[in-house]
Amino acid sequence: MSAIIEQVPAGNYTLDPVHSTFGFAVTHNGVSKFRGQFERVDAALTDGVLTGRAHVESVKTPLPALKEHLLGPEFFDAANTPTIAFRSTDIRVAGDGTVEVPGELTIRGVTQSVTATGTIATGQGLQGDEVVGFDLQTTVDRRDFGIGWQAPLPRGGNAVAWEVTIEAHLELAEA
Question: What superfamily would CATH give domain 3-174?
């Protein structure tokens, strides 16, 4: 059973990678959402500071050519910037279990301030350890991180939207 909390638990918590995901969603061709996910992610909640890192080479896509394009210099530039990183500067919990997590997001070596919003809850895992769950999202303009690739559509508009929603669904267990 999970509990809504009003403050961030003290102590150290590490990511349960089986029950966590980190990814993004972006409008494609002006009509649908393309979703991507990173398979190698690290995260921790240490004394009230949430940190996370995704290894860009682990981006998951069904098309090898698309993965190669995403890892290349027009998108994530994995050869020069192999990770996406986040570090919270605060975690503000409301009485209804909603949370605001302002922090610093680094993509392609560019750091920007963002605020993720969502929910936080605590519970107890099968082994009796305390767990904390975050469901967070934020929207960024990918150009702010140097991701400016674009292809115009034949009838106008862009193939890939500038705004990207970043989603993190994290379960962290007490260390």
Answer: Lipid/polyisoprenoid-binding, YceI-like (2.40.128.110)
